[in-house]
Structure formats: C-alpha cells, structure tokens
Amino acid sequence: MREYTAEEILEALNTHYDESIFITDNEGWIIYVNKLGAERLGSSREYLMGKNVRELMKEGMYVNSTVLTAIETKKPFTGHLANFGNNKKDTVSHSVPVLDEAGNVVMVVTNNMSKERSEEWEAIMKKELDTQARMQRELDYLRDNASRQIVSYSPAMKTVVKQAKIIAPTDSSVVILGESGTGKDVFANYLHSNSNRSKKAFISVNCAAIPENLLESELFGYEKGAFTGALAKGKIGLFEAAEGGTIFLDEIGDMPLPLQSKLLRTLENKEIRRVGGVDSIPIDVRIICATNANLLKLVKERKFREDLYYRLSVFEIKLPPLRERVEDIIPLADLFLQDLNEKYNEKKRFSELSKKTMLEHTWPGNIRELRNVIERLFVISPGSELIFTPTPTANYSNDILKNNTMPSDIVPLKQYTEQMEEKYIEHVIDLNGGSVAKAAEILGVHRSALYRKLQKNVHK
C-alpha cells in the first residue's frame, strides 16, 4: 500500500467529504475548514480561515457553539446549531477536543451534520439496537431451554406429538392447555422449531410474571416520553422483537381485560401501536398461548373475552399430566440426570428402588417437579447412586388442610413454614380453577409476587 501525503488527505476531506469539518485552536480560531463547511455557511474557505467562532456567531452565521463548550469542558460535546448558514436550518454539531499530555486543549475537531442526515443515522442505529434486542431475547430463551426435549413413549404423548406435527407447519394460532409443570413452553418451542418460521425469533413472555402496568409496554413497546421512567429513546416491544417468528404468551388466562382487547386488535389487523405512539406498525408474528386455567370457564365469568378465545384457539393441544404418562417418567428422569452428569462431569445413576418409587409417585408438580427433585438428589447424594424418596411436603400440608392435625415428623420451623406456604398457595390456586390472578387477589398479594414465590419454591 502506498503512502499518502498530508496534503492529499486534506484535499480528499476538502473536496469529497459530504459533511462539514472545522478545526479550531484552543481559543476558537479556525485553522481548517473544508469546502462544504464553507458553502453551508454561505462563505468561502479564504474568508473563514483565521476567523474566531465568536465572530461568526456575531455575524449571525449560526447560534450557539459546541466548539466553545468543548474547550471549556475539555470533553466531547454534541449540540444543535440553530439558524446554521444560508438555509438557516438546524444542524447537529459534534466537537471533540484534542488534549496534550498535561490535559490542556490543543485544538478542537468539529463535524456538522444536517438534521436530515442526523435522523438517517439515528434510524440506522435504532434499527441495529432493535435487532440486538430481538436476538438477545431469543438467546435468553434458548439458553434456558437448550437441554429440554419432548419425551413421548406413552400412548397419551404419542397422540399429542402426532397432533403437534400436523399443526406446526401452519401459521394458525394455538392454545396449549395443561397443568402447571407439564412442559407447555417446551411444546410451544417445538411448534416453532417445526414451522416455516423456525429460522426467525422465538420470544417467550409469561403474562402472570409481569405486573399489569408494565405488561402492555413489554408486549407493544413505547415511544419516548410515553410515561414517567420511560427510556429517552423509547423501547421495542416483544411483538416487534418476534417479527417474522413466533411469540409465546404463557399464562394467557391472567392477561388483564383491557390488554385482551388490544391483543385482539393485533390479531385481526396484524399491526401494533406502541404505548404513547400514534403510528400503526405492521407485524408478521405467529401467536402461541398457554394456560393451566379453564379458559371457557373464564369466558363464562366474563374474565376472558369470548371473541379473543375463539381467535386464539384455532387449534388446542392438551398436555397430559405426568401421572397419566407413566411410561415417560423414567426416560425423562434419565434425560435430566444425563444433563447433570455432563454438566458436572459425574457418572451418577438411579437405584432400582428409586425408579420403582418414582413410578409410584403422583408427581403433582409434573415434569417441573421431576426435574427439580432429580437436581436436588444429584446435589445432596454423596455417592454415585441416587436414592429417591418422596418429600414429606404433601403429607404435612394435607394433614392440616384436610384433617386439622399436626405432622408426625418434626422438621425445622423455617422448612415447615416454607412447605406450608407453598402448599397453601397451590391449594388456593386449585380452588380458583388454576387462576394465579384470582388466588393473588384472595391472598392479598400482587400476582407477580405470588408467581415469584411459586418459582422460588420450584427451584429451591
């Protein structure tokens, strides 16, 4: 590569660079300006060279000066120059001070960009940030679900998987039904992975885990200044993040009625409107929902929109609880144990007694309970053989809830309290048809706080 002289480089900036460049000394005297910079000010390079920026402001060439601010603060500064040049347009000016070893300003390099060009760059940067946000959300979900697979040795699951294979390639909306912990999110991912959208984003959101006042902005995004605490540049919503792919709305039965109306409009018009926005944004997203609640019952109770129910449930997939798919218990347990062995470089295994006991257990928490029990056994077992015995939690709670008697075994108070709280919460949720929102109202806590308690108990 040949070397270029300073004169050649300056000539290129002067003749070909399509934005204005100014270089001043540490007092604001212009020591360089390119051709376009002079033209925009309605002047010539010869006239501007040796002028002070203060003189140009007095002559009315522009208002304000980022150069003087950069000299004063010794830091880069970006601002608007009002009434800039002959066209009297607003211009975005960026001044960068050049400091010597002692930290004193030697010169200031300034780039002036038209408002139109600045908006073009801002749009490009925003699109890039939105893309990054979309990718990050998808990576976060995939990271959580990397080791999950669908196991279907039982007749019940074979039927469900066969149904899912037929539904997956379509763009139709799907509602996945099933008890808590049956793997509804895994099936949603399966539908996406076997669809024509598999190379696009898969975005998951739990409608029960996000406070009502934040759920709308999470789903649809918001414009800058939409509400107190909003980001200065606004925020992309989950529907936009899932463009071309799939959005999975878990616990759809807990979605507030006002937001149900907005979701229905989104489904019908295939467009969203950000919070605080006036423009409609077209979207191409497949919607998959899941719930452990009885949606038809919620419709009759006017807690879920009937028109939204029929719009969402083009297809329904009902996942059986683990107690109804006994043939899948040991294969699932082996899968979870294999993941743990690989993660921690161990060779632990189940005893035959453990397998027998697992097959006899009712697994009220379904696959989630199975996975977490195995992880707990893996951690606390000193040897290579895992011994499974059902936890006494259910006995403690049932003794008091049903018989009003104290448990026969003595455990630490904190353990007993946590176990009772967990079972009582589950009891209230069951009494209310699986609705976390209704249970939270009865218990006097916010549903997001109640959901966190459930998650904490599951993962402890």
Task: Write structural notes for this entry.
This protein is α/β, with parallel strands linked by helices. The chain has three domains: 6-114, Beta-Lactamase, CATH 3.30.450.20; 147-320, Rossmann fold, CATH 3.40.50.300; 324-459, Helicase, Ruva Protein, domain 3 (Orthogonal Bundle), CATH 1.10.8.60. The protein has helices at 6-16, 35-40, 45-48, 53-58, 66-73, 115-145, 155-167, 184-193, 212-220, 238-241, 257-269, 295-300, 306-312, 329-344, 352-360, 366-380, 393-403, 413-431, 436-443, 447-459, and strands at 20-25, 30-33, 77-84, 89-99, 105-114, 174-177, 202-206, 246-250, 271-272, 281-282, 286-291, 315-318, 349-350, 385-386. The strands form four sheets. The protein has a five-stranded antiparallel beta sheet with strand order 2-1-5-4-3. Strands 7-8-11-6-12 form a five-stranded parallel beta sheet. Helix 14 crosses helix 16, helix 17 crosses helix 18 (413-431) and helix 18 packs across helix 20. The longest helix is centred in the N-terminal third of the chain and has 31 residues, at 115-145. The protein is elongated and about 95 Å long.
